[in-house]
Design a protein that fits this description.
about 90 residues; globular
Amino acid sequence: MSNDPFKGIGNNLTGAVKDMLSITPHDTNLFDDGVVAIGLYITVGGTVKFTTSQGNARTVTVPDNFYLICSAKRVFATGTSATGIHALVS
């Protein structure tokens, strides 16, 4: 069983969030157990640098209590000022 919900799925992704994992940003570690999130919930806004399921590094600026709807498998410590980050897992 794969922990990547996007493996083998086309570009149109839908699905319910079944759990949330608290994320500690780290520059080299992926999320625990290789989980790929369908998005992130950010409690306190700022910049978020993350790696998508496709392996691309992205940086966005978000407000407080924001749902970032993009796959993610890592949130970097360097380049991230937002806090209270949670991975949305399907």
